[in-house]
């Protein structure tokens, strides 16, 4: 019999009788820590340090009968403070469309997945170096998923707060620099460039515009823009000391 205990927010993911305590289990022959941990519903993307009989152990470590295993959550990321550091890019699963648009609002390169099989989505995240965001634990367990987050919150703005906090996104946010619809970068545009795409009242009263280089959408300050600014201000106000 092997003992295992999950710590911190990992207790959000395991069955209630097992929360906040050590419990015994029998692992399959030749099972690794990855196999054992994920059998309890915890994707490897959620795992930080693992101790086996008090010693640091990697997820490839073979579980031995009688071992005592301690599993700790992945710590929130510390953002790279270099001015030239590349901002993280994300792949959000098909059920997180609202979160994808909110991350684009903050300026993060965020693809929204379709209903492709898990192995194709895992390959896309791996090949592009994207962080996979999902509420599908089985997808996050895929061996090709190197970085990811099981999103706990169910409401879009709370999901955004959760992801911003966990990945330390305050420093690298560039609000209103990406298209909310297609994810392409935005650029400033002259009124003459976009005049044929504007409602008459907007053309007559607005002077500042941004243009999407991907889908051609035009954005301008208006009531919707003001509501989005309030969302951004609320998120950015939570910058840690």
From TrEMBL:
Coiled coil: none
Annotated source species: Zeimonas arvi
Domain Ubiquitin Mut7-C: 4-74
Domain (Mut7-C RNAse): residue spans on this chain: 89-231
Pfam family, one: Mut7-C
Name under which the protein is recorded: Twitching motility protein PilT
């Amino acid at each position: 019999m092997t003992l295992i205990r999950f710590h911190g927010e990992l207790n959000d993911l395991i069955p209630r009788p097992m929360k906040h305590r050590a419990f015994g289990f029998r692992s399959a022959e030749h099972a690794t820590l990855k196999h054992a941990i994920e059998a309890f519903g915890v994707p490897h993307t959620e795992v930080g340090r693992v101790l086996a009989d008090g010693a640091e152990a990697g997820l490839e470590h073979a579980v031995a009968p009688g071992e005592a295993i301690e599993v700790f959550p992945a710590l929130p990321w510390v953002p790279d403070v270099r001015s030239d550091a590349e901002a993280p890019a994300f792949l959000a699963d098909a059920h997180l469309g609202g979160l994808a648009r909110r991350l684009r609002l903050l300026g993060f390169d965020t693809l929204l997945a379709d209903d492709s099989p898990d192995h194709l989505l895992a390959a896309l995240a791996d090949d592009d170096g994207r962080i996979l965001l999902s509420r599908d634990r089985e997808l996050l367990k895929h061996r090709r998923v190197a970085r990811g987050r099981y999103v706990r919150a169910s409401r879009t703005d709370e999901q955004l707060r959760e992801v911003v906090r966990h990945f330390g996104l305050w420093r690298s946010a560039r609000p209103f620099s990406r298209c909310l619809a297609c994810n392409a970068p935005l650029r400033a545009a002259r009124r003459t460039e976009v005049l044929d795409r504007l409602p008459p009242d907007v053309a007559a009263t607005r002077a500042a515009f941004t243009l999407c280089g991907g889908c051609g959408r035009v954005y301008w300050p208006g009531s919707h823009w003001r509501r989005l600014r309030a969302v951004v201000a609320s998120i950015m106000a939570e910058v840690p000391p």
